[in-house]
Alpha/beta fold hydrolase (Leptolyngbya iicbica LK), 338 residues
Amino acid sequence: MTSDAQTFVIPDFELQCGVTLPEVRLVYQTYGELSRDRRNVILYPTSYGAQHHDIDWLIGRDRILDPTRYFIVIPNQLGNGLSTSPSNDEHCGLAEDGFWFTHYDNIRAQEQMLREVFGIDRLALVYGWSMGAQQAYYWGSHYPDRVERIAALCGTAKTTDHNKIFLWSLRSALTADPAWNGHRFTAIPDRGYPAYARIYASWAASQAYYREQPYLQFGYESLEDYLLRGWEANYRKRDPHNLIAMIDTWLRCDVGNTPTFQGDYAKALSTIQAHTLVMPATTDLYFTPDDCAAEAQMIARATYTPIPSIWGHRAGHPYQNPEDEAFIRQAVTTLLQA
């Protein structure tokens, strides 16, 4: 790993929403060594609410992604508080102002960074969980001859209507706070955060997970303690404007809704040439196995391998769950041999 995260600056960056920012700052972290032929690159985009240091636990010699063999790059998605976001750029707004980021914006910025900083024009793997999986599908469809493999964990290439209801409920919980003035928060949303976190917790893990209460083994004393310290406290670390900005990106996820495909979602998926591991969790409530299986049928070289887990959506990010980590590691190892 490099000692510090790096920042790539792109001047006059036109977003898909139509706004041109004076500059976009893409913060990224690298792990391992780039080979002379530049063919050992794994791109690992961030998920909702996450920054690179939240998701790099799975990078290690005996973990899912091996930095002794691969050069791994984690780009922080726009809106996550490190890269250009409402919290660190006065030119950024929210959907109420006609402003939003899309994954089309994310992958264009990432592609330019990889090409101009490292001379990388081919990826051995794009690995992503949740919103990271969404970005992986965008990469595979928009740069089909440059992506050899995709590992899409617990994510879809297009946000379903059912998923949108979940996202709208999160957004509504935050913006129902008295501190929301219709465009921004004028204070910390102390009522909004608890409602938001409890909605999120109810969707992110399965009914079986809450029946079996595995969270008690991690030092939580009760369900309420888990919701307070395991969910609400974590999201209070994030600026609420950034949380909404990332929701707005997630809501607009559709690989077909770009200038390249002009609304043709099926064509976008059929364009993917990469060996693609489609890996939902069997109990995911918002990136459901059925939705992921339907997309796998539309990708020529897709392998559908659901994670048998009670952990719901979080099975795809198993930092507390060695069994699911081992299952994912084996599947990714097989994929990298393809």
Observations:
- The beta strands are 6-14, 20-31, 41-43, 71-75, 125-129, 149-153, 275-279, 302-304.
- The chain has a mean pLDDT of 97.
- Residues 103-118 form the longest helix (16 residues).
- Residues 163-247 form one domain.
